[in-house]
Amino acid sequence: MELLLKAGKLKKKKFKLNKHTEKLMKEISASYNIPEEKVVSLALQEYREEKKVNEEMEKLRKEIDDLLQEMFTLEGKWASIRYRSHTYVKENRSLAIILAGYLGENKSLRNLMKKKGAHKDIEKVVDYYLWL
């Protein structure tokens, strides 16, 4: 059996089918009560749709790979920023400890001189950095 398929408006292509394929086409057309040419066109249409879905899947896979690569890059940058902020917190805590020592010394000197006055605002800052 020979099939004549149109590949466009001007192009036509002849195909020879083997006996097994011809038999299969006749069985399908008989069971669904459709012409044999329609069986071929439906099969080709399904093939084209599968091919289109596969192309879309490949595009999505590529996009996912690109997004993963960008995520790993951002995660590396975030790790360095997080480490830097951790060192700043430790430095601030050590400076708050030193400042607390100076406040205690200042308080004891004020008591010796019998002067009143407290540094409540500085004590709040020290408490904030000591209890981070």
From TrEMBL:
<protein>
    <submittedName>
        <fullName>Uncharacterized protein</fullName>
    </submittedName>
</protein>
